[in-house]
Amino acid sequence: MNVRMQHSMAAVLERQRAAFLTDGPPDATMRRNRIDRLLALVLDNADDFVDAMAADFGTRPRVGSLFTEIMGMISVIEHTRSHVGQWMQPSRLMRPARAFGLRAGVEPSPLGVVGIIGPWNFPLNLVVLPASAAFAAGNRVMVKMSEVTARTAELMQTLSTAYFSPEELAVVTGDAHVAADFAALPFDHLFFTGSPSVGTLVQRAAATNLVPVTLELGGKNPVVVGPGAEVARAAARIAQGRMINGGQVCVCPDYVFVPVDKTDEFVRLLRENLARMFPSIAASADYCSSVNEANFDRVVGLIEDARDKGARVDSVVPPGEILPDRSTRKIAPTILQDVDHSMRIASEETFGPVLTIEPYERLSDVVDYINSRPAPLVAYWFGPDDADFRSFVRHTRSGGVARNDFAAQMIPSAAPFGGVGRSGMGAYHGKAGFDTFSHHRTVVGSDLPFTITGRAAPPFTRSMRVTTALALRMARRRTHRRLRRLRNR
Fold first, then answer.
1. Which residues form the active site (predicted)?
2. 398 burial level (CB within 10 Å; 0-12, 13-18, 19+)
3. pLDDT, tens only, 269-299
4. Out of 168, 250, 252, 358, which one is annotated catalytic?
5. What is the pLDDT of residues 313-372, one digit of tens each?
6. Among 147, 212, 296, 326, which residue's CB has the most CB atoms within a 10 Å radius?
7. Could you tell me which residues come within 8 angstroms of residue 85 by beta carbon, excluding any fewer than 6 positions away?
């Protein structure tokens, strides 16, 4: 990256921070206005964005882009917009004490300037949603678009100037070097969506300036077909979930646990569903390509590595077609069995149209396996809401849990979305997004005729010593009384 670009980004950041400090926290009307302009930017230019994303991917279904990129964000943004005024209100503490002259509250205040680094798999949705939350919280926003989807990035940068001043929203494009320098800027908060490996670099860069970071990462999402599941329904919905965006989704099912006595039936039904979904792939406008050659080669390499090391590989290739095909970057839906830990796909996030099948006899073994690996972004369960499911939820760790449908944990607009451990830190969507980009500042004022905290300053009187000793003795007795009560249960 050239020095001019680096200085340019720093200058934009300083302009935004100066405007933020000069104008002060925006009122609810301005926050809603910025959210509306952001939504208008997307909706007014939806066709152009869909065309740009199709060009970036090679083949990306138009309806799929409209549904996942654009329609999928509207309900969350509308929910945020409608609650801005409510979320801005300070909360009161110690209400009875107000009558005596002690007033305490917590006021949400904007952080200042928020940096957002977007991914390539949903290059529009996953920058607009965090930006809307940052606007709701009263911040200015700088966005670094993914260089992998360069046409979408350029379009976003060009269009943004028609809807926003650069002091409100600035869109940055450029390669990985630009992204690295962007991550190193002294933002008031940095939001990143992408892989754990890159997330590590982002957090390391932000740490230099002690910038708080929200990381929305990925991982290998497990699916459990429970003992009471309807196998046919599970197979159909898992097939659909895996193939959205060509499998290039951070919440895609990755590997599936199936009861031993139902594994053959499940694999047969899974294969039938995939074949029915895609009677043609090579020339199909509905079959999403790998975004670039690097990802195409990586996914093909995972499959071949598994094959070479003894896995059973079943590629669901339509009759008369030869896949994978480098010219279209299309890989057929692939089912893997007999996968072991020596294979790369056992530990690497797939991010392609591949499912691994794992037979199981005891649910406790499934839980132990999942818990021995990094916590996933989402854990899936197919089956009734019974004791087995509740035990699974209680004894596993994941960013979210979805039962009987793909990404069901994202359906409620008010629900927080985020990972845990290696799948991420922090959350957004709904009030969680507002809170992520806010500082909750405690404000306390006293009109009491005496000091409360000043009693901790010397000189200490005899009555102070007696009172402190008595309070300590009472607290000790109260604590041990609770401990005895628990032991005697």
1. 216, 250
2. buried
3. 999 999 999 999 999 999 999 999 999 999 9
4. 250
5. 999 999 999 999 999 999 999 999 999 999 999 999 999 999 999 999 999 999 999 999
6. 296
7. 28
Topology of domain 222-415, per CATH?
Answer: Aldehyde Dehydrogenase; Chain A, domain 2 (3.40.309)
Q: Are strands 221-225 and 169-172 parallel, antiparallel or unpaired?
A: unpaired
The string of pLDDT tens digits covering residues 455-488 is 888 998 998 899 999 999 999 999 999 999 999 9
Indicate the CATH number for domain 1-218+428-440. Answer: 3.40.605.10
- Residue 382 to residues 2, 238, 395, Cα–Cα distance (Å): 51, 9, 17
Q: Does residue 216 have an active-site annotation?
A: yes
Domain with CATH 3.40.309.10 in the chain: 222-415
Up-side HSE of residue 329: CA atoms within 13 Å toward CB?
Answer: 21
- Distance, in Å, from the CA atom of 452 to the CA atom of 125, rounded to the nearest integer, reads 51
Q: Say how far apart CA 235 and CA 402 lie, in whole Å.
A: 15
First to last CA, the chain: 66
Beta bridge partners of 225: 382
Burial of 342 (0-12, 13-18, 19+ CB in 10 A): exposed
| Phi, psi (degrees; rounded to nearest 5) at 251 | -105, 15
Structure tokens at 74: 């509207």
| Percent of the chain whose predicted confidence (pLDDT) is above 70 | 99
Which residue intervals of the chain bear CATH 3.40.605.10?
1-218+428-440
- 252 given a catalytic annotation: no
Whether this model's pTM surpasses 0.85: yes
